[in-house]
Amino acid sequence: MTWLVPLPVVMPLLGAAATLLMFRRPRVQRAISVSVLTATLLVSGMLLVLAADGPLVVAVGGWPVPMGIVLVADQLATLMLVVSSAVTLCVLLYSIGQGGADGDEEHPLSVYHPTYLILTAGVTNAFLSGDLFNLYVGFEILLAASYVLITLGGTETRIRAGTTYVVVSLLSSVIFLAGIGLIYAATGTLNMAQLVERLDALPDGVRLVLQGMLLLAFGIKAAIFPLSAWLPDSYPTAPAPVTAVFAGLLTKVGVYAIIRTETLLFPGGRVADLLMVAALSTMVVGILGAVAQSDIKRLLSFTLVSHIGYLLFGVGLASRAGLSAAVFYTLHHIVVQTTLFLVAGLIERRGGSTALDRLGGLARTAPLLAVLFFLPALNLAGIPPFSGFLGKLGLIQAGAGDGSALSWLLVGGSAVTSLLTLYALARVWNLAFWRTPVAGPVAAPLRSSRLMVTSTAALVVAGMLFTVAAGPLYSLTDTVAADLLARSPYVRAVLP
Predict the structure, then answer these.
(1) Largest Cα–Cα distance in the chain?
(2) Where does the pLDDT of residue 98 fall: very low under 50, low under 70, confident under 90, or very high at 90 and above?
(3) Distances (CA, A) of 218 to 68, 221, 440
């Protein structure tokens, strides 16, 4: 069944070519895109089941390992594939609904669908990459597509914000490429399984430089403080579905790369203290920025940055419990953060704005919208018994188990960040949904199609399922963490 492994990359690329050829037929484009992403989700689910017996490995083109490109579908990669495929499918349906409601004025379908599928192919390729250069290619594919999507519509605001995004992304790509070059010069290979042995043989100083370059590149992509200043200014200007998929997925690709390289290539926690300090700074600075915002999209952007700190906390602990909780929280956060940005899009259409001083009374005038916001907001804030609470509890328990002074500081920072997240989201609830509608002229509401609401509701339900299935999911992420720390299952699968 290894022939399934390349499909999550190949199918979106073929779908992109097909939708490009059908640029004059929007309905055919929509049918192709939905079919391709549905098939990608099904294949990803099958790969997740198959990976339980061990990683699936494919040498692309039949080249012997480690000469050619290797795709590796282990449990971590397939978990990320399943969640990302479900999220991209729901966001696609939302964008189709929005495009239909808007008469396609902001969503030129002839460009949108091929670009969106190429973005999906870049994300899946990054998750499945078994060598650093192919990981770089995956990043470049998704970034090239994201450059188009973030400036969709070509307004002055989007072009200005997109320029910042492009410059920062290019900088991280240059650092990543330079790091790859140095790693190849030092070891003679870029295959990650082969690098396990060869990096261990390098002097500690050389290893530290190589590790630092990869962390710097991935830290920019994951929006870790102080490399996160670009995000709150870039994401909110894009169309709602684009912002949602960027917020949910793109930073997590950077987090995934950090988890993969720190556990497989640079184990032992040599930079654990640095990661812990970065985690605490990202949490605190991000959430303080969120508290100060008066616009829902910018507030959510800062909470996105803040919660990347939780994920880094688990990686910095470099323990089985910490990694297990970090993987669990990553999966949860992809779904919940995407959902909240989609809800913000619905709020903007209903209230004419996402500025809190111009909103009010939505709980009475749009009760369904209030429910769609309320549930993921509680989940993100970490209110029991939601999965956000379970993920944070796992991280706090892992930090307490570590017992170091820095870990206890992170435990306190996690608790404070969670309370401030609750405060920031409660403020949105009070001002946008609960208080009396503001007086004065407001923009006429735009119609939200049934497809937009249904796809958002599907993600809300998916977030609830994380809570219902938290036990089995935590068992799975615990196995993932054990395999990551052992390294041998991955290496034996690639280099038998």
Answers:
(1) 70
(2) confident
(3) 24, 5, 46
Q: Supply φ then ψ for residue 162, to 5 degrees.
A: -65, -35
Q: What is the mean pLDDT of residues 240-251?
A: 90
62: left (phi over 0), alpha (psi -120 to 50) or beta: left
Q: Which residues of 45-72 are buried (b: 16+ CB within 10 A; e: fewer)?
A: eebbebbeeebbbbbeeeeebbeebbbb
> Between the ranges 107-116, 233-242, 300-309, where is the mean pLDDT highest?
300-309
Residues in a beta bridge with 355: 295
Strands (E), 34-170: 56-59, 70-73
Asked if the peptide bond before residue 385 counts as cis, ω within 30 degrees of 0, the response is yes
d(CA 254, CA 247) in angstroms, rounded, equals 12
What pLDDT shows up at residue 103?
A: 66
Task: List b or e across 454-470, with b for residues whose CB sees 16 or more CB atoms inside 10 angstroms.
Answer: ebbbbbbebbbebbeeb
The 10s digit of each residue's pLDDT in 192-221 is: 999 998 998 999 999 999 999 999 999 999
- pLDDT tens, residue by residue, 38-92: 999 999 999 999 999 999 999 987 788 777 889 999 999 999 999 999 999 999 9
Please give the structure tokens belonging to residue 346: 């619905």
Closest by CA to 3, choosing from 46, 74, 58, is: 58
